[in-house]
């Protein structure tokens, strides 16, 4: 039987570097950070070690699996975009069958770990996030509406709740506020990049907002969401979940965010858009570090 048939039992030797890249490791690292902070905030002491470690591992595996499914589904568009044409599938460093098998393996392994050793609630919520990203966003919304990333952003916003349920096995208001923060952060995070890469998306007919509604309109919405993000970030302080150190931190982080959004609104599309995109990542990382530091300052002093 010919090797080119690529049946599952005829997979090539794995290229581990390519398989690692399929998991979008930097994105998953930030996702896991938000989940870890969700776990730490779920208790006033240190979280119990087993659900903490296995919960973070299961969330990481399923997020990496979701990212690998995204690569499989988007391989043709990725091949035609300058930003993505070097990815493992378009460049041929991994076969479609191997990538699909890898996505299934990571997702299943993550699910089993969460279900068997953490709790079924976390396993099912993480599975819903995976389906939300890989199926609802990538397979459907991405090509259906310029609001794709607003709705699809809910999947990527779930990890603080997943981290929380891994420890508490229940859903409550506090982690939902953290979900709201990431949900509100996603549009400026992504639309900044989409402004800089507008032509790429136009070329492959993906209806991202700068393609369908133009750059000026997208900049308006980035400003609007940036103001909204500031307000949403204040909620943990206003409901008494976080203290003054958190408030000081988020005021500083959001002031810089607003300044960069304003600079983009007024200025150069390429460099200012990439500056806001780059900062959005540092911003989210620092915001969750500040949340955790504030939590521990209150718990221990
Ligand atoms: C639907 C929601 C989201 C969309 C559409 C989106 C879109 C993107 C895109 C297109 C990139 C560029 C990737 C590349 O060049 O390979 C990116 C990068 C990144 N995103 Fe997002 N993102 C979303 C949610 C998130 C979430 C929830 C997180 C983490 C909590 C996140 C963290 C990152 C990080 C860390 C990078 C930099 C990756 C690198 O440099 O390799 N994103 N995002
Ligand atoms: C289980 C769980 C918590 C799932 C969350 C999964 C996850 C990896 C979310 C990240 C969102 C993201 C990078 C979207 C970009 O996709 P894109 O296709 O628009 O960007 P691309 O063109 O760079 O691939």
From TrEMBL:
It holds the Pfam family UbiA. It is a multi-pass membrane protein. Its EC number is 2.5.1.141. It is found in: Cell membrane. It is an enzyme of class 2 (transferase). The chain crosses the membrane at residues 27-46, 52-73, 94-117, 123-141, 148-167, 173-196, 217-238, 244-262, 274-298. GO terms for molecular function: protoheme IX farnesyltransferase activity. InterPro entries: Protohaem_IX_farnesylTrfase, UbiA_prenyltransferase, UbiA_sf. It catalyses: heme b + (2E,6E)-farnesyl diphosphate + H2O = Fe(II)-heme o + diphosphate. Keywords: Cell inner membrane, Cell membrane, Heme biosynthesis, Membrane, Transferase, Transmembrane, Transmembrane helix. Its main location: membrane. Pathway: Porphyrin-containing compound metabolism; heme O biosynthesis; heme O from protoheme: step 1/1. NCBIfam families: cyoE_ctaB, PRK04375.1-2. Converts heme B (protoheme IX) to heme O by substitution of the vinyl group on carbon 2 of heme B porphyrin ring with a hydroxyethyl farnesyl side group. HAMAP family: CyoE_CtaB. Carbon 2 of the heme B porphyrin ring is defined according to the Fischer nomenclature. This is Protoheme IX farnesyltransferase. It comes from Alginatibacterium sediminis. The lineage of its organism: Bacteria, Pseudomonadati, Pseudomonadota, Gammaproteobacteria, Alteromonadales.
């Amino acid at each position: 039987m010919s090797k080119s048939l690529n049946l599952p039992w005829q997979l090539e030797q794995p290229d581990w570097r390519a398989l690692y890249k399929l998991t979008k490791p930097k994105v998953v690292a930030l996702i896991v950070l938000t989940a870890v902070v969700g776990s730490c905030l779920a208790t006033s002491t240190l979280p119990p070690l087993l659900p903490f470690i296995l919960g973070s591992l299961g969330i990481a595996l399923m997020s990496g699996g979701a990212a690998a499914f995204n690569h499989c589904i988007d391989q043709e568009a990725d091949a035609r975009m300058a930003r993505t044409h070097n990815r493992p599938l378009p460049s041929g460093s991994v076969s479609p069958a191997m990538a699909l098998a890898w996505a299934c393996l990571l997702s299943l392994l993550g699910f089993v770990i969460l279900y068997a050793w953490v709790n079924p609630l976390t396993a099912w919520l993480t599975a819903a996030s995976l389906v939300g990203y890989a199926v609802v966003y990538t397979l459907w919304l991405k090509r259906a509406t310029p609001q794709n990333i607003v709705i699809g952003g809910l999947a990527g916003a779930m990890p603080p709740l997943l981290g929380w349920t891994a420890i508490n096995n229940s859903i409550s208001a506090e982690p939902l506020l953290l979900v709201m923060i990431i949900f509100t952060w996603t549009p400026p995070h992504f639309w900044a990049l989409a402004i800089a890469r507008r032509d790429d998306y136009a070329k492959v007919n993906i209806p991202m907002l700068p393609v369908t509604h133009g750059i000026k309109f997208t900049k308006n919405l980035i400003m609007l969401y940036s103001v909204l993000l500031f307000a949403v970030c204040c909620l943990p302080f206003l409901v008494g979940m976080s203290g003054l150190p958190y408030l000081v931190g988020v005021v500083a982080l959001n002031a810089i965010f607003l300044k960069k959004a304003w600079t983009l609104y007024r200025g150069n599309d390429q460099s200012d858009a990439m500056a806001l995109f780059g900062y959005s990542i540092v911003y989210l990382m620092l915001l969750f570090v500040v949340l955790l530091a504030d939590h521990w300052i209150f718990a221990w002093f």
